[in-house]
Amino acid sequence: MTDICLLHGWGVNRAVWQGIEDFYAAYGRVRTIDLPGYGKRSNETFPDQLDLAAQQIAEEMPVDSIVIGWSLGGTLALYIQSARLVQIRALQLIAATPKFVRSQNWLAGQQPETFAKFLLDFKGDYLTALRRFISLQLHGDSMNSDQLENWMDKLNVYPEPSKTTLINGLNVLNKTDLRKDLALINIPTHIVYGKRDRVCHPKANIYLHESIANSQLSEFNCGHLPFYSCIAEYKTHTGCWLESLGLLNSAESECI
Length: 256
Prior knowledge:
alpha/beta; Rossmann fold
């Protein structure tokens, strides 16, 4: 049976996949992996270097897995594949980016001043800043109050990550630039994004598609959480992609 590894993003934990794990399970053996310092690994600390974090995560991945990475999890998945830390069968990158912060030759990122202010605020009252960032993840999604409350409740299942873990993750995002590594990715890759995303610039996903051979692109009318706020459409697109890899679901599906 094919293993499907799920990698969450910064500031949250494996609980973000609740409600969609059964969908993935119809296609393979699901492995929800907490990043170091999060969820069931909250007693650890997220490293301050991308390669060290990626190595720890790769050690938990069975060979020839399908890896689905969201946000920071997508960036880690990109690095794991480009560095060949473990053999991966296929990638799905959800709201991911090769470079999180804007620069002179990269306009599809967060403004350096905005990121610097967030980091400064975070070093002060990090719990308030964390909640503000989680709210930003929800920006652009048409959710009712019950959906918003459900999303926030998910994150309280496990202990909050330490301040060091969160700051190290932000520093990794600030330093990382994987644009030159994208040519090294030659496995089937499905790039998924919301056109109203306020965390990961939508154009970053288009850049990924243009830079990664054997990739396909799916756009959704939402923000940073297409697998939550556009779950029906996300399942349709993802199901068709998984079936194109030879993984069949017993339920009927329609490819578009």
